[in-house]
TrEMBL record:
InterPro entries: Prolyl-tRNA_editing_YbaK/EbsC, YbaK/aa-tRNA-synt-asso_dom_sf, YbaK/aa-tRNA-synth-assoc-dom. Keywords: Lyase, Protein biosynthesis. This is Cys-tRNA(Pro)/Cys-tRNA(Cys) deacylase. Residues 36-144 form the YbaK/aminoacyl-tRNA synthetase-associated domain. The gene is ybaK. It comes from Rhodobacter flavimaris. Its EC number is 4.2.-.-. NCBIfam families: YbaK_EbsC. It comes from the Bacteria. Coiled coil: none annotated.
Amino acid sequence: MSTQTPATRALTQAKVAFRVMEYDYVSGQDKIGLHAAEAIGADPGRVLKTLMVEVDGKPACAVIPSDRSLSMKRVAAAFGGKAATMMPPDKAERLTGFHTGGISPFGQKRRVPVAFEASALAEPEVVINGGKRGMMVALAPADALAASGGAPHPLCAD
């Protein structure tokens, strides 16, 4: 399986150290992030899922631990809006250039604002989708923020 994706190219271009972790992606999984964490043998709290949202009708990207849920109220506040909704999968695929289950905050076709769950950034290393199904990248949280242009915010429901 090739490990060259727009996401890994963006990380390389940003001069960010990362390592690729591959696993057997199972189509139709309900909780893709939890499946990925189990498949690579990592703590679900440091395996982050990339969720595309719309805040007051504008696209944005929220990155949170795979074992947590978004608070739409907190997402709206993080992006300076009043209301947030999940972006429909087909729209997320067109906007990012990635397939659902393989969406990464790095190297998206159209750059959008990115927010990371602040509590997840306390980990020494986080694991985030590498731009295709079955491929993750492990990197330092500060590098993930820098490469994505993201900012830390409280995004998860309590």
